[in-house]
Amino acid sequence: MQPIVPEITRISVTNLINKGERTDGRSLDQYREISVETGVIKKAEGSARVKIGNTQIMIGIKPQIGEPFPDTPNVGVFMTNSELVPMAAPNFEPGPPDERSVELSRVTDRGIREGKIIDLEKLAIIPGKKVWMIFIDMHILDYDGNLMDAAALGAMAALMDTKIPTATVEDDEVVIDHENMQPLPLNDKTVMTTMAKIGNELVVDPSLEEEGIMGARISIGVRSDGAICSMQKGGERPFKKEEILKAIDLAQEKTNELFKYIP
Amino acid sequence: MINIITNRDLEVKSEAKGSERPDGRAYNELRPLKIEAGVLERADGSAYLEFGDNKVLAAVYGPREFHIRRFLKPNMAVLRCRYNMAPFSVEDRKRPGPDRRSLEISKLTSEALSPAVFLEKFPRSSIDVFIEVLQAEGGTRCAGITAASVALADAGIPMRDMVVACAAGKANGQIVMDLSEWEDKEGEADVPVAIMPRTGEITLLQMDGQLTKDEFEQALDLAKEGCMKISVEQKKAIKNRYGGD
User: Looking at CB atoms within 10 Å, which of A20, B43, B206, B231 has the fewest?
Assistant: First the structure.
């Protein structure tokens, strides 16, 4: 069941945004308060809790030894998974991942994969047979809008916090040394900025209320060198080309702020 | 907002003399415990609990309209519970989604909490309790029930009492309170107990392992003693949140 936004809210929020203001007092390109903490789950090899406003996500990283995919036998594997747990919002239901959850996982995955953030070649142990599989599990605890940016920021923070055991090969057998933990090999960093189109404007980091009335949203993943590595449009309304280009400029500017939370 | 989240080991304070327990606790000593009420924005009530290395979050929604007709009760509310472990909460990644163990724990938790709640005041509705284990270290079902009670109180749901749970058992031949993960796995017996502390009535009881009748009675008494200690912390969490003395 999707919550219904009253027409009067839609009109007043839209009018305010057309004047360059927002209901919570932010400017159009301002994030809510952000916090990132790492190393919060001892049982996970890497973890982070991230908050953007009241939106809260816990991310844990678990490595496992597994077999590579047949088409990429010489590189490691990573998988991104998210759970919109029913405690996070009154309209989240228990059960297998729904389309929102799958979209969130896939968009986060894409930023990390296409940005070539994890050095997957270093995760091969016996090429063609045994590789590290890195599981990125995102647990959405409190949903108050803009899960995309919180997930991307948190996943990156957790990856940077990750230490994996040393794996060596003796007589074709993998030997894992839990005493010698090493940082997960990373090439770069990526974060994501989401903008919602409301009225004639683009607003950065839409709140739950703003997501309820937005016509469309666009999420843009940017690497620390400024390269764009993923993009996702959502929502029922269309964008104009100029709006997309403006969103890219805005994203490149805002991601610089986000990178400061994961030095 | 979870303020008390810890990212280092909670230290056991006392080194009990001659303790046979691997973490140095006395036989009737709990692991360090912290509870915080009202930690989530969206949920009607919530609580976060750290108990040793357990990190558990509980949230309550309701009383609200019950949309599954066949489970609806025309004369009272139904308290539903979902216990879930995060994939990263245990040593070997747990596959997401319910398994047989979490389904059983969900059912028992619901039955442990129900006697304390005035369900008859909310006919045709549901009260939904969600428990998320973020990090597990033995005794998560008890931690979940304890946190869920605080979340129910935080949601303002009328209750006869705040249910509290604690385990006792036998490890290294000794009857001990609040088994750690190691004691749970390697020990001889595990007896999780939930009570309503005002009357001492038992709302959850399980046992696995082997005990004589005398040992069982000792374990049960010890678990109840643990419950009474935890109950004090539950009430403190609610007082901290709502500022009463």
Answer: A20
Residue entry with tokens 């304070």: B13
Instruction: Give tens-digit pLDDT for A122-175.
Output: 999 999 999 999 999 999 999 999 999 999 999 999 999 999 999 999 888 889
Taking 80 as the threshold, does the pLDDT of residue B244 lie above it?
A: no
Give the best residue of A87, A101, A163 to mutate against chain B (max B CB count within 10 A). A87
Inter-chain touch B88–A60, beta carbons under 8 Å: yes
* Token reading at A221: 């993943």
Nearest CA in chain A to B90: A43
A94: closest chain B residue by CA: B82
- Span B85-126, pLDDT tens digits: 999 999 999 999 899 999 999 999 999 999 999 999 999 999
- The answer as to whether A1 is a domain residue is no
Q: CA of B5: which chain A residue's CA is closest?
A: A40
Distance CA(B61)–CA(B42), nearest Å, equals: 9
Which ipTM score applies to this complex? 0.86
B28 to chain A nearest CA, in Å?
26
CA distances from A58 to A41, A241, A252, B5, B88 (A): 9, 35, 25, 12, 10
Residue pLDDT, tens place only, B155-164: 999 999 999 9
Q: Do B135 and A86 touch (CB under 8 A)?
A: no
CATH of the domain at A186: 3.30.230.70
Which residue in B42, B57, B137 is closest to A89 by CB distance?
B42
For residue B82, give the nearest of A60, A90, A94 by CB distance: A94
Nearest Cβ partner for A143 among B42, B61, B87 = B42
Q: What are the φ and ψ backbone dihedral angles of A254, each rounded to 5 degrees?
A: -75, -30
**Cβ B84–A85 below 8 Å, yes or no?**
yes
List the single residue in B43, B88, B96 with the smallest CB-CB distance to A41. B88
Quickly count: other Cβ atoms within 10 Å of residue B161's Cβ: 17
The encoded tokens of residue A214 equal: 């937005």
| Residue A132 located in a structural domain | yes
Q: A with B: how many residue pairs have Cβ under 8 Å apart? A: 107
Domain B31-241 listed as CATH 3.30.230.70: yes
pTM: 0.90
Residue A142 lies in a domain: yes
What average pLDDT does this structure show over B12-38?
A: 81
| DSSP assignments along A39-73, one per residue | ---TTSSEEEEEEETTEEEEEEEEEEEEPPPTTST
Percentages helix, strand, coil for chain B (3-state, rounded to 5) are 30, 30, 40
Q: Is residue A46 part of a domain?
A: yes
How large is the average pLDDT for residues A212-237?
A: 93
Annotate A76-134 with DSSP letters as a single string. Answer: -EEEEEEEE-GGG-TT--SSS--HHHHHHHHHHHHHHHHTT-B-GGGGEEETTTEEEEE
State how many domains chain A has.
1
Nearest CA in chain A to B91: A43
